[in-house]
What does this fold into?
Amino acid sequence: MAKSQKRRDVPEGATTVATNRVAHRDYEIVDTVEVGIVLRGSEVKSLRESKVQLGEAYGIFYQRELWLVGLRIGAYSHSGSAFAHDPERRRKLLAHRDEIERWSSRVDRDHLAVIPLALYFVGGRAKLKLALARGKSRADRRQEIAKRDSNLETQKAIAKARRSG
It folds into this structure.
């Protein structure tokens, strides 16, 4: 996936690997958290080459742990077949126990989804920005587009009035 031009999901000083650009369009973000991710050596090297697809990934809770499903990390270009990793495997996410418990209960209670927003390196460690999100309906997205268009037209009218007056 292409790198996003907006840095809203990545902290200062971080090296962006991938962002989920459709997350803000398709979901209403309720809460966010930064978590670590358990990776193998060839996966880390592939991430440094930005061979990752984040769009189809989501988080699940299994046996009081948080797991990431659907993250595709391509094979490292210089690794042999003996040291290659499975590109589609589940990856364990590292978060505080109380945060996992709180998010798990909110997902069950409010029917929310756990989606990744960005994958980046901070201090040599791979981090993932996760969001607790509620899906938007088609009508919500249309309203948002109409609101954005009306704001743009208003800004254009104000700028035109300033120039001419």
Notes: The mean pLDDT is 85. Residues 69 and 109 are 21 Å apart (CA to CA). The first strand starts at residue 15 and ends at 19. Residues 15-136 form a domain with the Small Protein B; Chain: A; fold (CATH 2.40.280.10).
